[in-house]
Write a structure and sequence with these properties.
Blueprint lengths: L3 E4 L5 H15 L1 H4 L1 H11 L2 H9 L4 E6 L5 E9 L6 E9 L8 H15 L4 E7 L3 H9 L3 E8 L4 E9 L5
Parallel strand pairs: 4-5
Antiparallel strand pairs: 1-2, 2-3, 3-4, 5-7, 6-7
């Protein structure tokens, strides 16, 4: 099955919410529990949040779609409030049934390329410390762990990562 990476559209929102829900439940519920996942999704993955990111010209928002045009993953990143050369990668999710197919790598590469094209120099992100899949994914993609934090919203430890987005990487 081939994958196309394209800009997100408002018509994708329902499918993106389904991807988010499945990925969060599979990856995060074992760490923080079902109830916390449900609360977090309700607070941060509502249709208006997606619409705002998709329609924001400064936000990188790419969607991976399958042969039938159905979204199976997405990534979003926006310029940091502190430094426009730094982008905060807030979301990168792939439907769990598609994990291991390289879709996440394609989405991350597209985000990095777009960020570099837009004048960005670095990407920052955070992951749950116990999310071994995400930790391994970003480390294998060349991201350097730069610190730790406690996420009060979901009650868990996390790691921060950074990567340069340039031809030298």
């Amino acid at each position: 099955m081939s994958i196309e990476i394209r800009r997100g559209r408002p018509a994708d929102i329902d499918a993106l919410q389904r991807v988010s829900r499945r990925a969060w439940k599979e990856a995060h519920a074992p760490i923080i529990g079902e109830e916390t996942v449900e609360d977090f999704l309700g607070d941060h993955y509502d249709a208006e949040s997606f619409r705002a990111e998709i329609e924001d010209d400064e936000t990188v928002f790419a969607v991976a779609v399958d042969d039938a045009g159905v979204p199976v993953g997405f990534v979003s990143a926006r310029p940091s409030d502190d430094d426009p050369a730094v982008y905060d990668l807030g979301r990168l999710y792939v439907s769990p049934e598609r994990w291991g197919e390289g879709i996440g790598q394609q989405l991350l590469a597209r985000a990095e390329e777009t960020i570099a094209d837009w004048g960005g120099e670095r990407v920052l992100l955070g992951v749950m410390a116990e999310n071994d899949r995400a930790v391994s994914f970003y480390e294998s993609a060349g991201y350097d762990r730069t610190g730790e934090f406690y996420d009060e919203r979901i009650g868990t430890q996390g790691y921060t990562y950074v990567a340069q987005v340039s031809d030298e990487r």
